[in-house]
Amino acid sequence: MDEDVIKAMARWPDVPAAYGWLSLDARGRWRLHPAGDAAAGGPGEAIDHPGVLAFMNRNYTCEGRDWYVQNGPQRAYVRLDAAPYLLCRADAGPGLQTHTGLAVGKVVHWWLDEEGRLYAATDRGPGMVQDRELPLLLERLRTAKGEPALQALEQGLADACSPLPDMALDAGPPAPLARLTRSEAPARLGFRANPQADPPPHGPPAGG
Q1: Of the spans 4-18, 31-45, 153-167, which averages the highest pLDDT?
Q2: Residue 134: phi, psi to the nearest 5?
Q3: Parallel, antiparallel, or unpaired: how do β-strands 125-129 and 118-122 relate?
Q4: Nearest to 59 by CA among 49, 73, 47
Q5: pTM higher than 0.70
Q6: Could you give the CA distance from residue 83 to residue 99 in angstroms, rounded to a whole number?
Q7: Rounded to an integer, what distance in angstroms lies between the CA atom of residue 150 and that of residue 137?
Q8: Using an 8 Å Cβ cutoff, are 79 and 39 in contact?
């Protein structure tokens, strides 16, 4: 997180959080919602300014299951259309990296949904492999026995009762692979897809 952001948080600790203004799509693209309609499913507008994107990527983090961008002293919570991180092949060397440019050191669990999306619990947090990355990534996945994992994944999609093998990416250690549905992904991976502000507490009844 940026040093000036940390200083702003300390200087103004009680700035209310913002909801409904940011979303992250299934390809790791940030979107701004000027009408504040992210929570309602609005499409938003693409953010493409390099400096703004770099700032958001550096100051993106979470508390518990909710992910947000720390914008100076204010948290701007993010609607997640797929997962907190969108994963792609690392720019340099083997392995994966997040859409924010963080290197993924380890995958501890894989999940496959009914439409062939591949999710991962990583040392950076929960993520989903970007769709355009998946075909090339599948070529680098191996079962614990060292066999190509693609056939087992295809069989798993065709037959929901077929066993799924542990899988390893490149030279990494094998990790369990399990099934889930797309709607189950937030609960299974431990994130909230659409953070909402807590309702205000109810005061005492009138005349009480």
Answers
A1: 31-45
A2: -60, -45
A3: antiparallel
A4: 73
A5: yes
A6: 11
A7: 10
A8: yes
Q: If phi over 0 gives left and psi between -120 and 50 gives alpha, with beta otherwise, what is residue 77? A: beta
Higher pLDDT: 193 or 1? It is: 193
List Cα–Cα distances, 114 to 124, 147, 155, 180, 184, in angstroms: 25, 23, 12, 7, 11
Q: Which two tokens stand for residue 185?
A: 């992904």
Query: Hey, how many other C-beta atoms are within 10 angstroms of the C-beta on 145?
Result: 9
Question: To the nearest 5 percent, what fractions of the chain are helix, strand and coil?
Answer: 20, 30, 50
Question: Is the alpha carbon torsion for 161, 174, 128, 193 positive or negative?
Answer: positive
| 21, two tokens | 């203004």
DSSP states of 27-64 = TS-EEE-TTS-TTTT---EE---HHHHHHHHHTEEEET
